[in-house]
Design goal:
The complex is a heterodimer of chains A (about 230) and B (about 240). Chain A has about 230 residues and is an all-alpha fold. Chain A contains 8 helices and no strands. In chain A, helix 1 crosses helix 4, helix 3 crosses helix 4 and helix 4 packs across helix 6. The chains are: A mainly alpha (about 230), B mainly alpha (about 240). Chains A and B meet through helix 2, helix 3, helix 6 and helix 8 of A and helix 2, helix 3, helix 7, helix 8 and helix 9 of B.
Chain lengths: ~230, ~240
């Protein structure tokens, strides 16, 4: 079978549109995931037993089930939940992109929470004690003193997880969304050009992830020097 | 949960039979792929620790390729693309494999080689974490390179990386769900099918979610036991005795 490059050229605008959606999911997932994940991490470290148990249960649940299953859960649940909130008689139809954004924030938060928690635990106890001694409120202590240090300590791992997230976005294929892979699939099936399309997206994903992982590697070296 | 014991539309059994069949495919795929991943991953990981020659470079290409492309895209590669690139008769033979083998075999190869890249990185890190004296002592004692890795370096390296291997082992069960995209009716696909047949979303997905939780728990237990059984007094604190 011959690989036909003109097929790829013709598909480029549509693929770029798909890529943009992939990037959007990643950005929403990172931002929402780190914010929600940090709250979970703080909850897990809290002295309130109920709060820390709930947070632990959430993290363990999310980390034990496949992302595809979570996508299905949210896909079927969100319309129903919105229907319940708005007191509508039947489930309210929502767009696929909203479903996807919600899924990725909920799912990735569990993974980010574990990383941020490791960050908090890497800070020396003196920092916590000093915050208390200075009379900082819990909120101020976390926002100004603890969180910035925690994040810096685990920055490379956070970024690596973000590369994983970027790759995971391809799974929205299961609800027929048009991300990079979804766009390629739609063209591949329309034109019967599976080989060209799947090889192309493979190369695109590779270039993005390879460049990002090389950047993380360099950052790691820099941070290691800074810590000395 | 009464759903489980209701008769399926084809009248051949109950929904619990579907779940059990899905579970069977999930487990066979995960354990089969894990075996491939351990073997290939160890070989590639060892190759990456060599000081010179072409092998460490090939190992790096392998790891970078398989780690930087999403699993789903790799799945499509093995299922859709590879048969087209092979000689026509071989490609046809692959495409005409009977279901479910037509999707199981590509999924097995895909998941095995994907996980191997991740294990290779851990094996490499484990070997490189050992003090240089271990390798020097082994060569001083006249071990061949193969013997040195098999008897001295790898047994220690595997003990160091057991916690991360546990993580990987639990991940492989979750990753089997990606095989539903190429038509393997494993657990998650089963939930979707039951939902499509009954519209009882909560029960269908609820049962499968619980099954995944139990799998995760068992997988963790198994690895935890291996970790305990493999512990050496001298490595008990996680570092070699000074």
């Amino acid at each position: 079978m011959m690989v036909d490059l003109s097929v790829i050229a013709a598909a480029t605008p549509f693929l770029l549109k798909g890529l943009w959606f992939t990037v959007q999911i990643t950005l929403v997932g990172v931002t929402g995931g780190i914010i929600f994940g940090s709250l979970i991490a703080v909850a897990r470290l809290s002295r309130n037993r109920l709060l820390s148990t709930l947070a632990t249960a959430y993290v363990n649940l999310m980390r034990s089930i496949p992302l595809i299953l979570v996508i299905f859960w949210v896909f079927f649940l969100v319309p129903w939940a919105i229907g319940w909130v708005t007191r509508s008689d039947r489930p309210v139809a929502v767009g696929a992109s909203l479903t996807i954004f919600v899924t990725f924030v909920l799912f990735e938060a569990a993974y980010y929470a574990e990383i941020v928690r490791a960050g908090f635990r890497s800070i020396s106890h003196g920092q916590y004690a000093a915050c208390e001694a200075l009379g900082l409120s819990k909120l101020h202590a976390y926002v100004y003193i603890l969180f910035p240090q925690a994040i810096r300590n685990v920055l490379p791992i956070l970024l690596t997880q973000t590369i994983v997230l970027f790759q995971d976005t391809s799974l929205v294929y299961v609800i027929s969304a048009t991300d990079l892979l979804g766009a390629a699939t739609k063209i591949a099936q329309r034109d019967g050009r599976l080989v060209e399309m799947y090889l192309t997206v493979g190369v695109i994903y590779f270039l993005f992830c390879y460049a990002a992982s090389q950047f993380v590697k360099r950052l790691q070296v820099r941070l290691a020097y800074g810590a000395r | 949960m009464s759903l489980l014991f209701e008769t399926t539309p084809d009248g051949a059994g109950r929904y619990i039979d579907w779940i059990l069949s899905g579970l069977g495919w999930t487990l066979s795929l995960a354990l089969g792929a894990w075996t491939i991943a351990l073997i290939v991953g160890t070989l590639v990981g060892v190759a990456r620790t060599f000081r010179s020659g072409i092998l460490p470079r090939l190992g790096r290409v392998y790891v970078e390729t398989f780690r930087n492309i999403p699993l789903l895209v790799q799945m499509f590669f093995w299922y859709f693309v590879l048969p087209e690139l092979l000689p026509v008769r071989l490609g046809m033979a692959i495409k005409q494999m009977d279901p479910p083998w037509g999707s199981f075999v590509p999924a097995l190869i895909c998941l095995g080689l994907f996980t191997a890249a991740r294990i290779a990185e851990q094996v490499r890190a484990g070997v490189q974490a050992l003090p240089a004296g271990q390798m020097q002592a082994a060569s001083a004692l006249g071990f061949s390179r193969a013997g040195m890795y098999r008897l001295i370096l790898l047994p220690q390296a595997f003990r160091i990386i057991l916690p991360t291997l546990t993580n990987e082992f639990m991940t492989i069960f979750k990753n089997t769900s990606v095989a539903l995209t190429i038509g393997l009716v494993e657990l998650t696909a089963t939930a979707r099918e039951i939902n499509e047949n009954t519209f009882r979303t909560f029960e269908a997905f609820g049962v499968v979610t619980i099954v995944y939780l139990v799998i995760a728990l068992i997988a963790w237990q198994v690895m935890h036991r291996i970790e305990r059984a493999a512990r050496l007094p001298s490595l008990a604190s996680g570092s070699a005795r000074q």
